[in-house]
Structure formats: structure tokens, C-alpha cells
Amino acid sequence: MSTAGIAGLSPAAVPAGRRRAWPRSALPGLRPTLGLTLLWLSLLVLLPLTGLLLRPWEIGLDGVWRVVTEPRALAALRLSFGAAILAALIDLPLGLLVAWALVRYRFPGRRLLDAMVDLPFALPTAVAGLALVALYAPNGWLGAPLSAIGVQVAYSRAGVVMALIFVGLPFVVRTLEPVLLDLPGEAEEAAATLGATRLQTLRHVVLPAVAPALLTGFSLAFARAVGEYGSVIFIAGNTPMVSEIAPLVIVTRLEQYDYAGAAAIGLTMLACSFLLLLLLNLFGRRLRPRTA
């Protein structure tokens, strides 16, 4: 029987061997699901971004350029992006060590350490900032001995980096844990039986397997750190041109009712962040085939 003849019959009349298997989806339908998704995406993401894209141009191109290239704004942007990149780079080895210990070893207090990793997620940023100040202030538990040797963490750029390390570390740890769980220990044992040292095993077996996860963790830690505000302003000192971050400059302009200027700096941060994350994503796509 031809296909045209079969099309006019009911499903019961079509032989079982010639019935076409249509995949069933748990969602009710493509069109209503897609429409609802686009609606929520527009309300929650696209509309705010559209306002951010349009608001700066109220002062014209020259006004936007003047606001963005102001020395105070440039210094704040350099500090925000530089500290975020540096903190994310420091989080990579720290996060790998913590994730490795949680996955590969069983020791007293492991569950407590595993719960403490998530503490920056649940802790309000203002509380985190106060805790860091109490710890690294010149009279704090760690700040006092550091000040004795001439190292000042609180109220300096080092304090900004320390706060960003604190908020970004859980992203690296939680990104690496599933990959390390899937990494078989037999691969390391095979490398050892072939005469590889621990450093060679780490370099040629472990790191290539976790490289995509490391890049993802770096991206998440950077994205979290570049816009951090609450935990930074308490420990940074907020000295213009020295330890003032870009989000604080935006808040300052908002307090002065300079909404267009604040949006101009915010648009600059959005463009720079998007460009860096896009480059990291492209690099990650090239990295995955090599590590597969």
C-alpha cells in the first residue's frame, strides 16, 4: 500500500510496522510554551536591558563619552574588572584543591566544610563585608599580624580582591565537583603504573579532564565578582581613584539623580563583561574537542 493510501486511514488501521513513532513531550505544546518563555524573557531581561541601552543617549554621544572617560570612572572600571579577573584566577587553584578534597577524601569535618562552601551563597553581602572587615581590619584577627609586617588588606585594593575571592570561590568548587566525581581513579592509577609522577599525572591526566570545568568556573566567578557591591564597599575604603569600584560610582550618580550618567557606566560594564564572557565561551568551545 502506498504512503498516500495509508495517510487516509485511522491509526488503528495502519499496520504496526508502518506507524510513525512521534516523540511525546512533557510540555503541552511548542507554541504556548515558546510564547510564555519569550514573554517572561522580555519582561525580566529584555525590557531592563533595553532601558539600559536607551537611557545613556539622552545626554548624547559626547555626554556618554565624557562620563565614561572621566578619570574617576576609568579608575573604578579598571579596579572592578582587574580585581574580578585576579580574584577569579586565584579562585581556580583554591577551588580545585577544595573540590578535590571533598570528592576524593573522607575526613572528620568533611560535611561541615562542604556546607561552609555554600556560605557565600546564602550570606547577605553586607554581612559578608562586615565579617571581612572584622577579620582583616588593622585590629582584626588577621589584619593585626598583617599590619605588623606592613601589609594592609582592609581599606585598600587588596581588600577588594579578598572580598571577590570570597564570593567567587563557591562557583569554582561546585562547578568542578561533578567533573571530579565522573573522573575515574583508575586513570590516575594507570598513569602511576606507567611511571608518571604525581605532577605529571596532574598535568597530563587530571587538568585536561577538568579544563572545561575550570574555564566555566572562572567565567562564573568573574561574572559574580565584577558586579559585586555589598561585600566590597565595607572593606574597600571607597577612596576615589584608589579603591572605589564601578558599582559604587553608579550608585553615587544615582544619588545625584544623574540617571543617564549612571546608565552610561552601567552600559560600559555590560559591554565589557559581555565581550569577555563571549571570548571565554569561544575559547571553551575550542578547548572541549581537545580534551574530549
Task: Provide structural commentary.
The structure is a single chain. With 292 residues, the chain is mostly helical. It has one domain (59-291): MetI-like fold, CATH 1.10.3720. 74% of the residues lie in helices and 0% in strands. The chain has 14 helices and no strands. It has helices spanning 3-7, 30-54, 60-68, 71-104, 110-117, 119-122, 125-136, 143-148, 157-182, 185-193, 198-226, 230-236, 246-255, 259-291. Residues 1-9 have low confidence and may be disordered.
Helix-strand string: HHHHHHHHHHHHHH
CATH architectural arrangement: Orthogonal Bundle
Distance between the termini: 47 Å
What structural class do helix, strand and pairing data support?
Answer: mainly alpha
What is the total tally of β strands?
Answer: 0
Strand residue percentage: under 5%
Question: CATH homologous superfamily, by name?
Answer: MetI-like
Number of domains: 1
Q: Given this structure, which CATH class is correct?
A: Mainly Alpha
- CATH fold descriptor: MetI-like fold
- Number of discrete helical segments: 14
Which key phrases capture this entry?
mainly alpha; CysT_permease; 74% helix; membrane; transmembrane; transmembrane helix; 292 residues
Brief account:
It is a multi-pass membrane protein. It is built from 14 helices and no strands. The protein has helices at 3-7, 30-54, 60-68, 71-104, 110-117, 119-122, 125-136, 143-148, 157-182, 185-193, 198-226, 230-236, 246-255, 259-291.
Topology of this protein?
Blueprint: H1 3-7, H2 30-54, H3 60-68, H4 71-104, H5 110-117, H6 119-122, H7 125-136, H8 143-148, H9 157-182, H10 185-193, H11 198-226, H12 230-236, H13 246-255, H14 259-291
Helix pairs in contact: 3-14, 4-9, 4-11, 4-13, 7-12, 9-11, 9-12, 10-11, 11-14, 13-14
Subunit structure: The complex is composed of two ATP-binding proteins (CysA), two transmembrane proteins (CysT and CysW) and a solute-binding protein (CysP).
Domain ABC transmembrane type-1: 77-280
Membrane topology: Multi-pass membrane protein
